[in-house]
Amino acid sequence: MPSDLPLSGSRILLVEQDGFLSDYLTSSLIEAGASIAGPARSVEQANSMLGTFTAMPDAIVFDAQIYESKDFTGRDAISAAGIPLLLVTRGGYTPVFATSDTLQAPFAAYQVVDHIKAVVSQSNRSHSTSPL
Length: 132
Known about the structure:
Layout: E1 11-15, H1 19-31, E2 35-40, H2 43-50, E3 59-63, H3 64-67, H4 75-81, E4 85-89, E5 101-104, H5 109-122
Parallel strand pairs: 1-2, 1-3, 3-4, 4-5
Helix pairs in contact: 1-5
């Protein structure tokens, strides 16, 4: 994969319940050079994926409704690890966790890529080099 792509080498966790939006985000992030863990399409899949990482992702693109579900158990772990988070919303849904960056659908692929590029470059966390 060419190293001049904006997200080259970035590991992104994708959690999105809508199949069309999940596919759109996946292809957009991959075309920008990211490797993708997921997509998880339910609360159960998101909880399971977070419990199996050998290396934490550089950023997470998360469906706001799954992130805010009372059954999602990973919020504290994500916050404690300092993983940059982008909440994706649609249909006028307003996230309760307003401390996270949010994109309201419809949005363009470049907006997601630009956001992830900015937060990954600002993050000074050290990661294991193990693949996801």
